[in-house]
Amino acid sequence: MKKIVLLLLSATALVTPSLAFAREVTIETRLINYSGNAAYLAVYLTKADGSYDQTLWLAGQKQRYFGALRGWVKAIANEAQISVDGITGASVGGGQMLQVKADLADSLIDAGYVIHVDTAVEHGGEYADDATIPLTSTGGSAQGTGYVSTLSLSL
Length: 155
What we know:
Blueprint lengths: L1 H19 L1 E10 L7 E8 L5 E8 L10 H7 L11 E2 L7 E9 L8 E8 L4 E9 L5 E4 L4 E7 L1
Parallel strand pairs: 3-4
Antiparallel strand pairs: 1-5, 1-9, 2-3, 2-6, 6-7, 8-9
C-alpha cells in the first residue's frame, strides 16, 4: 500500500508543475480595411535578447508565400528545423481579425519576451514587425504599421 501511495505522489509531483506553470494567452490581430488578396501573417515570439523563441501561428494556405514574411524568415534562419504542423490556418482578409490562443510558460511572462506579427499580401506590401507587443502579465495593445490595425494581448 505504501508503495502505491509513493508512486501516486511521485507521479503527481512530476505532472502538476507542468500544469501549474503554463498560462493561456490570447493574441488578437485586427487588420485594416483594404481590398485585394487576403494577408499572410506570422505570429511569433522572441526572447529578451531579440533572438527567435517560437512560432505561435502562421496564417496562409500556400507555404511558398511564407517567404514574404521577412521578419519571421530572418528570425527562424538559424533554426535547424522548424515545424509548422498544427499552427497554420487560412489567410486573413481586410478588416478581419485573427485570434490566436497559446499556452505559454509563466517563466516567459514579464521576462522581456516580445510577440511579433509580420504581414504580407500578394501584389501588395510586406511588413516585417508590422506590430509588436511585450509579453506582460498586464496584456495591452499596439498599433500596426502596415496591414495590422491593432494587436492586443490578454491573459
